[in-house]
Amino acid sequence: MRDFKDAIIECVPNFSEGRNMHIIKEITNEIEKIEGVRLLDVDPGKATNRTVVTFVGNPYLVIDAAFHAIKKAGELIDMRTHTGEHPRMGATDVCPLIPISGITMEETVEFAKMLAKRVGGELDIPTYLYEYAASADYRKNLAEIRSGEYEGFSTKILKPEWKPDYGRAIFNEQSGATVIGARDFLIAYNVNLNTTSTRRANAVAFDIREKGRQKKDDKGKIVKDAAGEPVWEPGLLKSVKAIGWFIEEYGVAQISINLTNMNVTPLHVLFDTACDRAAARGMRVTGSELVGMVPLQALVEAGKYFLQKQQRSIGVGEAELVRIAIKSLGLDELGTFDPQKKIIEYSLRDTTTKKLVDLSLTRFAQETAGETPAPGGGSIAAYCGVLGAALGTMVANLSAHKKGWDARWEEFSIHAEKGQALMKELLFLVDEDTNAYNHIMAAFGLPKSNDAEKAARKAAIDAATVYAIKVPFRTMELAFQSFQLAKDMASTGNPNCASDAGVGALCARAAVKGTYLNVITNAKGLPDNEEVKDIVARSEKMNAACDTLEKEVWDIALSKMQ
C-alpha cells in the first residue's frame, strides 16, 4: 500500500450501550488516547441503548483507535443482558470506515480488512465485512448480516454461508459479533410522528424506503414468485433504509432511517416525502433528529430548497441557510441542535490558526496598522472586493423581497447567489495574500552556503513570487466580476438601493486597482517568466477597463436618485 500520510478517514462505530455514561466514556477514552485521532461526536440514545461515535484521522491511527475501542467495548458490555429498540448483534455492532480525503474507497476497503482481521484474530470476536468490503454480494447489506440479531446468532454462525470473514465460527456470548466495512457517508436520521403506533410508523417507512414492502393479494396473503420467494413492491426513494419504532424516552413513534447516498436522495427530499406519506395516512411529521454528524452540503441544500419553496432568494449566507434547514426539518424539536458540533466540516475546522477574516473590524484595522508589512495592501484590497460583492448581494436580496416584485424573486436570487460565491472566495484571499507574503519570506530564509543550496533557494523564491502574483491577480479577477453585479443591481435592482450598488462599484474599483499594484510590483523580479508576462498583460486590461465600468455604474446610480 502507498504512503497515506495526508489521507483522512472517518470511523463511526455503533456501541450497544447508550445508558451507562461511565462505560461510554471508558470506550471513547481509548479513542482519545491515540494521538492524531480527533473525536468529533458521541451520541448516546437511552431508548435504543446504543451510542454512535464519530472520529477522524490518518487511516493507520484510526484503525488502531477503533481496535482499542472495540476491545474495551467487548470487555465492558455484556450482550447477554442488553436490551434496546435498535437491532443489534454485538457489543460493537457495526464499525464502518468512510474515506474523507486523500484516499479512495478501494484503499479504505483494505484498511477495513486490516481492522477486521485484527479484531477477529486478537479479540476472538466473529467479524463480518460489509458494503464495499463485503466478501460476497449477499453480505453487502448490514441488515442481512444482522438478521436474527444477537439472540439468533448462536445458531446462525454455525451455518456455512454465515461463517465469519475473520475469527472463529464460535458464538461469543458476551461480545456477540461485529460488522466492519467501508461505505459512503451515511446519514442516520429519525423522523418524528404525532403517533405512538409503531405499526403506522412502519407503514410510512415501507412507503419511502427503497426495499418497500412485501406484495399482498386482495385477500391479504403475501404474493410469491416462481421460486416461492416473497415479491417485493419497491418504495419511493432510492438509497433509503427505514423502519418504524416507538421511543419511550420521547413518547412518540419515529421512522428510523439510514440515508446511504444523499446525492441520490437529498435529505430535504426524504423529509418532505415522509411528510407527504404520513399525511396520507392521517399523521403529521412534527420534526426530525440527526444521529451522529451530517455533511454541510446536506443542510445547505436543504436550506436552499425550503427558501425556494417560499419563493425567497437563496443567495443568503451559509449560516442562514443552515438555520433555515434546522428550523424547516425540525432538527431542534427533541433537543438543541448545535451546528458547530453536528456538522462534520465545522467540527474539523482548525480553530487554533489565527485568521484575519475572523477578527473584529477594529482588530483587523489595528493588525494592519502595526509594525509588520502583513497584512498589507493585498489583504485590504481583497477585503474591499468582499465589501463590493456584499453590497451587490444585499441589493439583490432586498430586490427579491421588494413589495410588488414577487414575480422577479428568482431573477434576483440568481444574482445574490453569484454574489455569495464571489464573497466566499474573496474572503479566502484576504488571508491567502498574507500567506503568500509569508511564503516569500520563508524562501528568502533558506540556507545559501553552497551552489546547490543557492539554486534551491532561488527556485523556492521564484515559485513563491509567482504564487504571490497569482493571488492578487485572482482577487483582481473576482473584484472585476463584482462590477457586473453592481451594474446589474444599479440598473435593475431596487431603486432605493442604487446608492448601495454605487458604493459596491467603488469598493470593486479599489480592489482591482489595489491588486494591480501588487501584481506589477511582484512581477518586476521575474521579467522573463512567460506565465507572469501573461498575467501582467491581462491585469493591465482589467485595470484600464475598471475606470469605464465604475463611471457606468456611477452614472446609473445617480440617475436613479434624481
What is the strand and helix layout of this fold?
Blueprint: E1 8-11, E2 14-15, H1 21-32, E3 38-45, E4 50-57, H2 59-76, E5 92-101, H3 105-122, E6 127-131, H4 142-146, H5 149-156, E7 178-182, E8 187-193, H6 198-208, E9 213-214, E10 232-233, E11 240-247, E12 252-259, H7 267-280, E13 285-291, H8 296-309, H9 318-329, H10 339-342, H11 344-347, H12 361-368, H13 377-400, H14 409-444, H15 451-492, H16 498-523, H17 530-561
Parallel strand pairs: 5-7, 6-7
Antiparallel strand pairs: 1-4, 1-5, 2-4, 2-5, 3-4, 8-12, 8-13, 9-10, 11-12
Helix pairs in contact: 1-2, 2-3, 6-7, 8-9, 13-14, 13-15, 13-16, 14-15, 15-16, 15-17, 16-17
Tell me what the structure shows.
This protein has 562 residues and is an alpha+beta fold. The protein folds into three domains: 8-182, Formiminotransferase-cyclodeaminase, Chain B, domain 1 (2-Layer Sandwich), CATH 3.30.990; 187-342, Alpha-Beta Plaits, CATH 3.30.70; 356-561, Formiminotetrahydrofolate cyclodeaminase monomer, up-and-down helical bundle (Four Helix Bundle (Hemerythrin (Met), subunit A), Up-down Bundle). The chain has 17 helices and 13 strands. Strands 1, 2, 3, 4, 5, 6 and 7 form a seven-stranded mixed sheet that branches. Strands 11-12-8-13 form a four-stranded antiparallel sheet. Strands 9-10 form a two-stranded antiparallel ribbon. α16 (498-523) packs antiparallel against α17. It is globular, with a radius of gyration of 29 Å. The mean pLDDT is 93.
